[in-house]
């Protein structure tokens, strides 16, 4: 028989009221940047990233995935990235569609920042959730049964007073209990078997609910630490203090033991607490002092201001009675106390006793006690049971570490907060809870955590370890749980729902220990500790983790357990078994978990058509935590490495079971740690239609090597590509970059939309540090062996240290920092440099600089030996066949030490004779600029000499003489950037001095070897980090840097006469690494700063207000739009160092009437040929006219032999005739 659960929304809200999903989530594209790359030749993007995307859709970002337990509902963009639709403050464990709505279940307390407890319905048109109120706890499993018009919900929760851990939502009725009172333990999975029955899996042993302790009303509420007050107290000494009656259980009258009211005056006694409680019993000790006593009273609960109803036993008649506003108290001195039982359990943190009538001259009391059924242990010791009142082992708590008491705010009680500095460890702080367990038995244990919004600690909350010692001979190592404390609102986690606990005694106290979790990356974590609750478990028994429910039956008979294959199988499991996952494939229902019987272990199947068990080779040798059925295969994740019979070694924490062949197979060689979640995802792997892949989430760090595939470093997330039978990183194609946590997914919700729950960071292309740039992004044919070791967690990349130029952050630079293209004759070489490790075509290791020879099938090589592997390259330049590479470089080439710069012959693939080593300063070359139309290579950075030549900041290497020269004698400083706007002027930016005067931008005239501070350079507020020309004439500049006084980023333009601010806002964490003006094919609105056919590209790690981080952005003079987004290893954002091109034709456009160079050449050739033809024709016409004028007649055309009519002419006669006039007709 079903019962309705009272809920504010059950009568008012139905899922049918939500809009249809036929018009699902709207994805909004962003305007195309329309960059004109046609004149630039080959183009590349260099940086420190492991994945990159163009910014094409609203919602794209660089945010890392959250590791604090919070998750989001996501969908996938056409470019492969995942974007958030709705944020939750904890996990979304399950979802399904029902009557046009998406049902979400989990352990969240908020969705989209608003309070939602455990379950909600989402309208995908508006992405607005609607509450399904009435549950308190956590939802683990959902089954939307459209045929039955109901949703089955399972988890660890209470649904009013009627059901626990399992309930249904009926479409037009709201919450409706099942024909049984739920389960006595959590439900983790629900499926509908082929026979139409509903299968529940979890950690329960029977149908039923938690119950009150064997001895109810025995947990004492601590009055001794409450704020006690009274009105109309007696003025008699020794009887006026209302605290006299607290912790007094003897019933004795007298001074210091009794509290009295004024004579013949009504009054009140009040207690106010810093914690909440739900009392079940009130015990009052009446006074008989001088014939006085209380006759009638009432109890008002505060702050709700409600007068409570009680039941009691009349001491005179021994009959059960009830009272409300005038509850009686006996004056019989032989009655020590009277107990009054609350009819309704109501939460309160304050109460007042109003005495309205009295015996004798006035009222009073000798004692008062308040009791509850709930077994709690509070972190704040004052809230635990008092040491008085005959309590043998009162609840208590101890702590170590920097704990302080925080106000309750919107929570149940005050709580402890510990502020931990640096990276927390479990030894940094602890709270040990000791509950008052009076009877041994099976209990549920719940951890209560206050919300983080009320104390503004959401960003500093993390994970805690909770360890249990529940029996005198128990091993605490078996009972450890991880709890996330990032909940926005108050929550409780059911840590165990059916665990054996011994009663407290002189020799043993059950205890729960809370400490920070080890291994967190969170800095300065705040840990909170409030209370732990215990509930005695009561049930019908007969089950063990499995239950088969027949919806066609109105009642459940426990006698039917023996006829169900599921129930019988569960009853054969050993004690403390648990079912974690259920999936259905055809007639078979697969059951995975942590269980064992005489014939199966951890995984088994039941054929519902035959009502029989299928043993799956006896199961697996470790726990199964998650499963997914896909196209005849059951993908299984957990903590195992073989089948039970040992026949399939290599099943390292993940395996696939083929339902047709009944065989197990490995996924590669598995992973190196437990897999907690297996979920499906759709990815476009081969530029065709999306295909299903299998994702794994868990606590593993490596994908194991197999076959010719090397080991892959991961962060607890891996993707298996079924069609390729390999991991995503091994696929020989352009694939996306994905990392994070995927809890569950749902395909084809509407119009092909797929939804995902978890926390993912993704980029369209998986690439380490460099990509090709065009209409789409592509990869270079080089394999980087290891990803960047960037350690920045949220707002930037360690490749470009925050607030520092390359010169000041050389040790943190990783990834590809720069690149160059070289073409000469039949040679075609791409150079990539930075700080990385790559593989050569012949398998050799390459460090920091690779050469890709396009003329030799993209053969990848590195430099010859001599350069230290610890070197870091920051700048490249090519002159003729020579590559100059600068940075933090050291080593020895041909017996000569090198520092800062190397020279390499690209034609011969050998080192040249090296320039004398740079010395002094930081020994860094940050920029190289070859003077146009010359062989002079200008090198800038932080150094003071080149060989024996004093040459601070900038030095010139002459390729004609192979020696260093100092460009002028009035310059010094640290140079970050150099450019040649023309062959007659060089611009250098950094922290400089010219003629001993500080400046941030200087110009150099090579004709006179003189330096000068750039025009109006005093307007620049700090050292210049990047500079570029702003127009084709080179008369205008863009400069970016860091303000010297505020550490803010600035971007300014020199318009030919003065400097102007760009007027854009970037957060202080921004790092700008390069600037470059691009021509666009579609004009934008013109501004004073940027021409209508141009945009300014800014690269680095940009923190854009209202958007977040971007690795590059385009500025059109008025607005800043992200251009490229990156992600990096260790769950961080990446950065872009620069964009490098084959041709520096940034101000030449193929649009707006221009033509490509090839077409221009052809047209010029055609015009030349046409002009030549016209000249020839004109010459022929003039010659004909002249001949006619001079009397020429046509020559004879007879075909007879004319040899007899001709005579030889001597050469001198012929030559002599050339100088004579042409007055007469010619003759021979």
Automatic annotation (TrEMBL):
InterPro entries: Gal_Oxase/kelch_b-propeller, Kelch-typ_b-propeller, Rax2-like_C, Rax2-like_second, Rax2-like_third. GO terms for cellular component: plasma membrane of growing cell tip. Keywords: Membrane, Signal, Transmembrane, Transmembrane helix. The chain crosses the membrane at residues 1155-1182. Residues 901-1149 form the Rax2-like C-terminal domain. Residues 1-24 form the signal peptide. Residues 376-536 form the Rax2-like third domain. Pfam families: Rax2, Rax2_2, Rax2_3. Residues 217-365 form the Rax2-like second domain. This is Cellular morphogenesis protein. It comes from Neoarthrinium moseri.
């Amino acid at each position: 028989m079903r019962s309705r659960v009272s809920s504010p929304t059950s009568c008012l809200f139905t899922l049918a009221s939500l809009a249809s999903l036929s018009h699902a989530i709207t994805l909004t594209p962003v305007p195309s940047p329309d960059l004109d790359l046609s004149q630039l030749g080959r183009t590349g993007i260099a940086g420190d990233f492991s994945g990159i995307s163009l910014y094409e859709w609203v919602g794209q970002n660089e945010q890392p995935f959250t590791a604090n337990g919070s998750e989001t509902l996501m969908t996938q963009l056409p470019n492969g990235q995942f974007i958030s639709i709705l944020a939750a403050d904890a996990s979304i464990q399950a979802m399904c569609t029902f009557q046009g709505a998406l049902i979400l279940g989990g352990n969240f307390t908020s969705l989209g920042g608003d309070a939602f407890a455990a379950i909600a319905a989402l309208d995908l048109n508006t992405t607005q959730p609607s509450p399904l109120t009435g549950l308190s706890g956590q939802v683990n499993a959902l089954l939307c049964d459209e045929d039955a018009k109901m949703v089955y919900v399972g988890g660890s929760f209470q649904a009013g007073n009627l059901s626990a851990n399992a309930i249904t939502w009926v479409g037009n009725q709201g919450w409706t209990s099942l024909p049984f009172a739920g389960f006595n333990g959590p439900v983790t999975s629900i499926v509908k078997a082929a026979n139409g029955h509903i299968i529940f899996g979890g950690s329960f042993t029977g149908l039923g609910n938690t119950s009150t302790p064997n001895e109810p009303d025995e947990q004492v509420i601590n009055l001794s630490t409450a704020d006690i007050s009274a009105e109309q107290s007696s003025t008699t000494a020794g009887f006026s203090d209302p605290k006299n009656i607290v912790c007094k259980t003897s019933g004795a009258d007298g001074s210091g033991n009794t509290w009295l009211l004024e004579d013949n005056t009504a009054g009140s006694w009040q207690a106010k607490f810093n914690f909440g409680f739900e009392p079940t019993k009130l015990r009052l000790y009446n006074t008989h002092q001088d014939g006085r006593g209380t006759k009638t009273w009432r109890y008002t609960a505060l702050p709700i201001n409600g007068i409570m109803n009680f039941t009691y036993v009349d001491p005179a008649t021994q009959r059960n009675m009830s009272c409300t506003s005038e509850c009686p108290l006996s004056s019989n001195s032989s009655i020590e106390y009277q107990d009054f039982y609350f009819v309704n359990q109501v939460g309160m943190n304050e109460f007042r006793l109003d005495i309205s009538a009295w015996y004798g001259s006035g009222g009073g009391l000798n004692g008062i006690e308040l009791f509850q059924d709930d077994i709690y242990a509070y972190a704040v010791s004052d809230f635990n049971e008092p040491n008085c009142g005959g309590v043998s082992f009162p609840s208590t708590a101890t702590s170590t570490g920097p704990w302080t008491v925080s106000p309750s705010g919107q929570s149940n009680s005050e709580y402890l907060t510990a502020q931990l500095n640096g990276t927390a460890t479990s030894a940094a702080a602890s709270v040990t809870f000791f509950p008052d367990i009076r009877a041994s038995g099976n209990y549920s244990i719940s951890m209560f955590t206050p919300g983080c919004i009320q104390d503004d600690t959401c960003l500093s909350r993390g994970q805690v370890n909770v360890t249990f010692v529940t029996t005198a001979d128990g091993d605490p190592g078996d009972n450890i749980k991880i709890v996330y404390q990032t909940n926005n609102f108050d929550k409780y986690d059911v840590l165990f729902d059916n665990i054996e606990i011994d009663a407290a005694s002189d020799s043993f106290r059950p205890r729960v220990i809370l400490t920070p979790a080890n291994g967190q990356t969170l800095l300065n974590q705040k840990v909170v500790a409030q209370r732990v609750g215990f509930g005695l478990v009561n049930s019908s028994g007969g089950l063990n983790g499995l239950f088969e429910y027949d919806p066609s039956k109105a009642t459940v008979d426990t006698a039917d357990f023996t006829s169900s294959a599921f129930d019988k199988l569960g009853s054969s499991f050993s004690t403390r078994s648990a079912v974690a996952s259920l999936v259905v494939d055809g007639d078979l229902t697969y059951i995975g978990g942590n269980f064992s019987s005489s014939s199966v272990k951890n995984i088994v199947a039941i054929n519902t058509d035959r009502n029989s068990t299928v043993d799956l080779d006896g199961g697996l040798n470790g726990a199964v935590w998650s499963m997914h059925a896909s196209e005849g295969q059951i993908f299984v994740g957990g903590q195992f490495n073989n089948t039970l019979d040992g026949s399939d070694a290599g099943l390292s924490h993940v395996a696939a079971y083929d339902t047709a062949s009944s065989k197990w197979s490995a996924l590669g060689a598995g992973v190196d740690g437990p897999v907690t979640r297996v979920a499906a995802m759709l990815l476009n792997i081969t530029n065709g239609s999306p295909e299903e892949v299998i994702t794994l989430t868990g606590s593993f760090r490596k994908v194991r090597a197999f076959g010719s595939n090397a080991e892959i470093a991961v962060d607890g997330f891996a993707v298996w590509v079924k069609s390729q039978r390999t991991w995503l990183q091994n696929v020989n194609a352009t694939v996306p970059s994905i990392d994070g946590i995927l809890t569950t997914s749902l395909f084809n919700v509407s119009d092909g939309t797929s939804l995902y729950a978890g926390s993912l960071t993704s980029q369209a292309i998986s690439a380490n540090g460099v990509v090709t740039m065009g209409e789409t992004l592509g990869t270079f044919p080089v394999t980087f062996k290891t990803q960047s070791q960037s350690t920045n967690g949220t707002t930037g990349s360690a490749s470009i240290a925050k607030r520092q130029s390359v010169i000041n952050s050389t040790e943190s630079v990783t990834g590809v920092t720069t690149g160059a293209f070289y073409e000469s004759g039949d040679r075609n070489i791409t150079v990539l440099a930075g700080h990385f490790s790559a593989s050569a075509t012949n398998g050799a290791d390459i460090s920091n600089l690779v050469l890709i020879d396009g003329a030799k099938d993209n053969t990848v090589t590195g430099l010859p030996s001599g350069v230290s592997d610890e070197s870091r390259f920051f700048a490249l330049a090519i002159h003729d066949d020579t590559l100059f590479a600068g940075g933090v470089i050291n080593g020895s080439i041909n017996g000569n030490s090198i520092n800062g710069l190397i020279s390499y012959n690209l034609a011969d693939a050998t080192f040249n004779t090296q320039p004398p080593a740079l010395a002094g300063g930081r020994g860094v070359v940050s920029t190289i600029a070859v003077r146009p139309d010359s062989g002079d290579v200008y090198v800038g950075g932080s150094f003071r000499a080149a060989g024996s030549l004093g040459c601070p900041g900038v030095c010139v290497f002459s390729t004609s003489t192979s020696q260093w020269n100092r460009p002028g004698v009035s310059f010094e400083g640290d140079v970050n950037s150099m450019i040649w706007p023309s062959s007659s002027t060089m611009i250098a930016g950094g922290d400089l001095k010219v003629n001993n005067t500080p400046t941030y931008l200087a110009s150099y005239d090579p004709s006179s070897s003189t330096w000068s501070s750039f025009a109006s350079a005093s307007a620049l507020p700090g050292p210049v980090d990047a500079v570029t020309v702003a127009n084709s004439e080179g008369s205008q500049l863009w400069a970016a840097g860091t303000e010297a006084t505020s550490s803010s980023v600035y971007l300014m333009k020199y318009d030919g006469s003065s400097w102007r601010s760009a007027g854009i806002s970037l957060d202080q964490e921004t790092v700008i690494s390069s600037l470059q003006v691009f021509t666009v094919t579609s004009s934008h609105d013109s501004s004073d700063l940027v021409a209508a056919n141009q945009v300014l590209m800014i690269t680095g790690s940009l923190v854009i207000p209202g958007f977040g981080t971007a690795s590059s952005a385009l500025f059109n003079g008025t607005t800043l739009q992200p251009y490229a987004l990156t992600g990096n290893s260790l769950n961080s954002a990446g950065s872009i160092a620069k964009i490098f091109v084959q041709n520096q034709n940034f101000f030449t456009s193929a649009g707006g009437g221009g033509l490509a160079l090839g077409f221009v050449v052809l047209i010029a050739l055609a015009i030349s040929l046409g002009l030549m033809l016209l000249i020839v024709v004109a010459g022929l016409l003039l010659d004909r006219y002249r001949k006619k004028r001079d009397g020429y007649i046509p020559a004879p055309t007879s075909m007879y032999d004319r040899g007899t009519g001709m005579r030889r002419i001597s050469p001198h006669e012929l030559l002599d005739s050339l100088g004579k006039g042409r007055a007469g007709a010619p003759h021979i």
